[in-house]
Amino acid sequence: MAKPSVTQKSFLPDFGSFGMAIRLVLLAELLAIIITIGRNASFDENAWQDFNLLAAFALIISFCSVLVLKIVAPLLARLSAAMSSVVVVLLVLVVTALGTDLLIFALHDLGLVAERWPPWRQSLIVRSLIIAAVVTVLGLRYLFLQHQSELDSRSRQEAKMQALQSRIRPHFLFNSLNSVASLTRSDPTRAEAVLHDLADLFRVLLADARKLVPISAEREISRQYLEIEKIRLGDRLQIKWNVADIPRSAQIPALTLQPLLENAIYHGIEPRFAGGMIRIDMWVEGDLLNIMITNPLPDVRKNVHGKGNRLAQENIRQRLVTQFGERANMQAFEEGGMYHVKVKMPIVHG
User: Fold this and answer.
1) Can you list the alpha helix ranges (DSSP code H) found in the chain?
2) SS3 state at 296
3) Average pLDDT in the 294-321 region?
4) Structural domain boundaries of the chain?
5) Cα–Cα distances in Å, from 137 out to 82, 129, 134?
6) Strand 237-243 to strand 276-285: parallel, antiparallel, or no bridges (unpaired)?
7) Sign of CA dihedral 192, 194, 197, 199
8) Minimum mean pLDDT among 151-160, 190-199, 233-242: which range?
C-alpha cells in the first residue's frame, strides 16, 4: 500500500488551536529564559527586567507569526511540503524583522531608548532573525517528523487491520457449496439465491478492512449467512433478533456480526443433537453500541472447538481495538447453560 504524499496541509498544525497557543507560550518563555541566562551573569533585578522584556517580545513575535500563518494557510495548503516550509520561514522572518523595529519604536516612545534609530538596531534585528530562523526550522522539522511518525503508525494499523481481516476463513464455505450442490437439481431457484448470498458475503470479506458499513447492511449480511446455514441445519438452527432503537446512521466495522454468529453455530449449535437457538441482542447505552450473541453450550465439550473459538474471538477483539482503541471491548462468559459474547463499541455515524 503506497503511502500518501506528505504536503504542507498534512503536517502543519492548526495554528489557531488552544493547544498550539499553549505550546507557543511555553516555547517563548523558554527562549526568554535561555537568552536571559546567557546575557546575565546573575539573576538580579536587571536580569528580571531583561527577562520580562524578552518574554513579551517573544510572545508578540510568536502570536503575530501564528496570525499571519493562519491567514495564509489556504495558500500554503496548495504548495508542496518543501515550498510551503520555505514560505513559512520567510513569513516568520518578515514578522520578526517588523516586530523588532516596532519594539525599538515602542521603547523610544516610552523613553527607554534615546534614539529612534539606535546604533545597535541592525545587530538586534540580525540576532532576532537568526534565532527566529533556527527556531522555525527546528519547529518545522519536528512537525514533519511527528507527521511521518503518525503516517507510519497509521500504515501499520491499516496493515494490521488487513491482516486480521484476511485471517477470517469462514468454516461454512465448503458446507455451503455442498448445500448448493444438493439444491442444484431439487431446487435450482433456491440454489441460485444461495450463490448470490455467498457472493455478497465474500464481497464483504474481500473488502477494505478499515471500511465502516451501516449497521443495517451488516445485519443483512448476517441474515444471508444464517439463511445459508439454515439450508444445512434445518430446524436445528433457530434465530431470534432483539434490536432496540439503533440509530439508522450508525456504522460498524464490516464483518463484525457474521464471524460471531459463525462461532455460535460452529461451537454451539452443530455439536448439539437437537441444535438450539441463537439470540442476537443489540441496544444503545449513551454513545456506545452493545451487541450480545447468545448460544447454548454444546452437549459435549471439544478442546479443538474451544481453542478455535478463542482464536476467532481474539481476532475479532484485535480488530475492534485496532479500529476504536480502548473504547471498544469484547467479553465472553458462560451463564445458565448458555454462552454469551458481548461486544461494545462507540457509535459512529455515517
Assistant:
1) 8-11, 18-39, 45-71, 73-76, 81-109, 121-166, 172-186, 188-205, 215-233, 257-264, 303-324
2) strand
3) 72
4) 8-159, 167-349
5) 12, 12, 5
6) parallel
7) negative
8) 151-160
Determine contact, residues 171/271, Cβ cutoff 8 Å.
no
Please, which residues bridge with residue 277 across strands? Answer: 238
> CB–CB of 338/281 below 8 Å?
no
Distance CA(77)–CA(143), nearest Å, equals: 15
Q: Cα(77)–Cα(8) distance, rounded to whole angstroms?
A: 6
Give the CATH fold of the 167-349 domain.
Heat Shock Protein 90 (3.30.565)
Cut 0.70: pTM above it: no
Condensed to tens digits (0 to 9), the pLDDT of residues 84-101 reads 888 888 998 998 888 888
Distance between CA atoms of residues 66 and 95, nearest Å: 10
Q: What is the mean pLDDT of residues 243-263?
A: 86
Of 227, 271, 247, 201, nearest in space to 350 by CA: 247
Position of cell 504548495?
79
Q: Which three cell numbers stand for residue 328?
A: 471498544
* Amino acid at the residue 260: L
Cell of 332: 465472553
Output Rg (C-alpha) for the chain, integer angstroms: 32
